[in-house]
Amino acid sequence: MIPVPGFEGRRVAVFGLGRSGITAARALQAGGAIPILWDDGVSGRMQAEAEGFLVEDLTRADWSGFAALVLSPGAPLTHPKPHWTVERAHAAGVPVIGDVELFARALHALPEGRRPHVVAITGTNGKSTTTALIGWVLKSAGLSVHIGGNIGIGVLALPAPTPDAVYVIEVSSYQLDLTTSFAPDVAILTNISPDHLDRHGGMEGYVAAKQRIFQAQSADALALVGVDEDWGQRIAADLRKLGHRVCTVSTSAHPRGGGDPVRAAHATPTEPLQPKNWVPASAGMSGIEAEPGALLTDGEVLADLSAARSLPGRHNAQNAAFAYAAARALGVSHEAAVEGLLTFPGLAHRMEAVGRLGSIRFINDSKGTNADAARQALASYPSVFWIAGGKAKEGGIDSLRDLFPHVAKAYLIGEAADAFSVTLADTPHVVAHTMERAVELAAADAAKAGGEQVVLLSPACASFDQFPDFEVRGEAFRAAVLALGAKPEPAA
């Protein structure tokens, strides 16, 4: 755990007692604060009381006595309307912050020579894979690495900082909205496409939240920006105007609708960070261009990814480019960085090969919860038997029409099945309703087609109509696949 100083002897309101909330309370208490906890759910309050925390009804509290409100990222800060705790805090002049901001303040309180390095990753898609990949590469190179945040362990539950440590932190737009002083040494924005617009009041608000990952960076920190979309290109340009050290990452794919390929922009070459007792990398870079099978920087081949079984597709080549650039900035040698990329085992529910039945491979991309994420998966294979559907996002799958030729047949599940059926009118498809039925039908059709085939779960939807979350949905897919007699694929 990371104790949070700065609130010694002061009352701090903590609302929302999920993973981040209860961990924040523990970290505040360890730093000498008096956390006052509340949650709308009885179970959260009971857990807090069982741990000995002070639980008070914040609807009746005197807010003038609070030094801060630590808000769960699940509670709305601004849209569709501010949470009632936010309104109470603003009325009393109480700052509203989150667990990532507490983490930042804990590190800032350390003497400069004792602060660890921080790599932070955000983006609409790819942030979890990029986070895990960076952690794997750095660990493989012998660094002391702690991975958490929006992935796995809450950031304040990670081990206490040591000077040689690197924290690799995934941060969501909700978490970034609650930060003011979070200043990663390497900040990464993978990409931006419409998502969570109801929580940010539209696309401009969503982009502004993502861009906050760079807001407090120092002059010698590094900003890594994906520039395959207009939003990323604009952010990279804005950061350069503000004097940030920027390295861009792009793929060599043509933008949707044609036009010239997006190329990695050139900037002043970046110099590696200088952690204590680490050997700095010798080569700077201004931009990396990624494509399946290779990583390129200014035309020089850096790594052949064809042997990296856990990094299929152009989007994973882009994730690998981010990981390579971050590792090099932290002093990892070229050889060690490439070795880490090639040995990465992958993440569950993200382009995960879960089984093989004869010549049929089953790929679990349950984390593909929107059309843009599903685009990356569909584009990774020339032909797929595609399982899609769930609770549809705005726009459905209309934006994927250019990839429908990759679909040998689609199997539609959940609430979106009927609407997706209309969109796929000219593509072979069937409304299967359930995951088990979809897997059964897809496997049968793939077997009839003969040869090497891929059955792909990439729903382009949220899971909440049939499953609690995307993990449970992915495990349902895995279970259905193995029930057919498929053999689990060996680890990469």
Short description:
With 492 residues, this protein is of the alpha/beta class. The protein is 31% helix and 21% strand.
Describe this structure in words.
It is a single chain. The strands form four sheets. The protein has a nine-stranded mixed sheet with strand order 7-8-6-9-10-11-12-13-14, with helices on both faces. It is α/β, with parallel strands linked by helices and 492 residues long. The longest helix has 17 residues, at 313-329. Helix 5 (127-140) packs across helix 10 (313-329). Helices cover 31% and strands 21% of the residues. It is globular. The protein has helices at 19-30, 42-50, 84-92, 99-108, 127-140, 173-176, 197-200, 203-211, 230-241, 313-329, 334-343, 371-378, 417-423, 435-449, 470-483, and strands spanning 11-15, 34-38, 54-55, 66-71, 96-97, 117-122, 144-149, 165-170, 186-189, 222-226, 245-251, 287-291, 294-297, 300-303, 352-357, 360-364, 384-389, 391-392, 407-413, 429-433, 453-457, 461-462. The protein is built from 15 helices and 22 strands.
Class computed from helices, strands and strand pairing: alpha/beta
Number of strands: 22
Overall mean pLDDT stands at 89
**Shape descriptor:** globular
Gyration radius, to the nearest Å? 23 Å
Describe the largest sheet: 9 strands, mixed
Low-confidence stretches: 253-283
User: How far do the termini sit from each other?
Assistant: 32 Å
Contiguous helical run count: 15
Estimate what percentage of residues fall within beta strands: 15-25%
Helix content: 25-40%
Strand order of the largest sheet: 7-8-6-9-10-11-12-13-14
